[in-house]
Write a structure and sequence with these properties.
Elements (H helix, E strand, L loop, with lengths): L1 H11 L4 H8 L3 H12 L5 H6 L2 H8 L10 H17 L6 H11 L6 H15 L13 E5 L4 E4 L6 E4 L1 E5 L6 E5 L5 H15 L5 E4 L6 E3 L6 E2 L1 H10 L2 E4 L9 H15 L10 H17 L9 H9 L15 E6 L5 E4 L4 E4 L8 E6 L3 E6 L2 E7 L7 E2 L7 H10 L3 H11 L1 H11 L9 H14 L1 H14 L4 H9 L10 H4 L17
Helix pairs in contact: 2-3, 6-8, 11-12, 15-16, 15-17, 16-18, 17-18, 17-19, 18-19
Amino acid sequence: MHQVRSIIQYLTKGYSLRAISRELHMSRKTVTAYCQRLESHPGSLAALQALDDAALSQVVYAQVTPPSDDERKADFLLQADYFLSELGRTGVTRLLLWHEYRQRYPEGYGYTRFCILLTEYIKVARPVMHFDYRPAELVMIDFAGDPLYYTDRSTGEMISCPVLVCVLPHSGYSFVKALPNATLVQTMAALNECFAFFGGVPHCLKTDNMKQIVTRPYRYEPTFTEAFNQWAQHYNIGLTTARVAKPRDKAPVENEVKITYRRIYAPLRDQVFFSLQALNQGIASQLDIHHGQLFQRKDYNRRDCFKGQEAPLLQPLPASAFIIRHRVQAKVQKNYHITLGEDWHHYSVPYQYIGKTVTAVYDSDTVEVYLQFQRIALHKRSYKKHDFTTVREHMPEGHQHYAQRRGWTPDYFIRQATDIGDNTRQYIEMLLKGRHFTEQTYNACLGILRLGKQYGNDRLEAACTRGLAGGVFTYRTIHNILGNNLDKQPLIRQAELFQTPVHDNVRGADAYKQ
């Protein structure tokens, strides 16, 4: 309205339309349109100038009259609520609803117009409310719908890992981790790491009604598992849930999952990881980049907002993390292993305890084995089903030697020989090349290396020096040299050994000439 009143002032002073356009930096077409509307009013310019803004706007602005609803739109609006309710049912699509609509109203809207009107109606019928979250008040958690994967080197299998996403709604600062599975134990262990990552504990936690945590979903008083209640008491944090099938109740974490797909999943899509630890390192790297990116149209990022506004208000961490420990009894099998039934994984104990009944105490990270309150084994927990975790010291001596033999390679023997001497290394290398199948020479290599323990490495090095001169590469050659003390004799070169001696009774080549 300020520009309109300026136009009236210039018209009163006799300015031309071109001059008014130049002074007000407006297009001439716009100025002309305003002037025509002002001239159509019966009052004078002074009378127009005296009008208030509301009255003057009635003069210069064309009145927008709502379009009259035709019969098609009226029919559509009568069914709009029905369309919205049906879209929430499994398998119902807009195309299906449109087909049903056209069967009842053959002259109704086409599919494109039908979708546009339905979208406009949804915006009005389902408005979104903006919430302000106080710093350090709340953390929201949820599992991403899509998992991440790492590759098992031994089998080439792609191992699926659920991904937990936690976010502080005020700052958007988040924690993301891939888990071996989505059990309660793993979920609580990840939440322990989350609070350690934040450096403190929020005052409340909000989740959906995931079965690991909630035993009885209820809008007003949901029932949580006993273990999770104990976890909450340990961290002095309140527990709340979203309403069933109401994802907007936890919109910040739903949005964070979408951001996780874009800023973590997408950058890692072409990378191959060979362990869960490597996968989580990749996630942590991308998460750090995400926290450092500025908010749109703001001059700060999530990390700055968290450190400046939320971190000082978090509750302090307890002295130790909350850990669920399970206790089961197991019998040591003849192969000196026990079986943890939850994962169907086998863990070794010293073979002397075969047949004993022991107690296994385990959590998400470690497995301890006790016999009469004395710990006899400690392992890092593995979740690979039907696999074995074996400590070499738990095996009988004969099994240890066999296990060592199963790990033999040409490089292993060459490294052992190099520690003795250069000639020993060369002799072992020639021995390894002496058979079409290299594995057939492993016992001979082992035997030669053991001769160093019997005779000493210096004598073995001298024996291999003599063996290299002879050009025969076998275990028995070195064994005979050492057994007959030939390694202590001066080395005679092969050319000197077979040289014809000088003697009067030996005739030369001239004696055979005719």
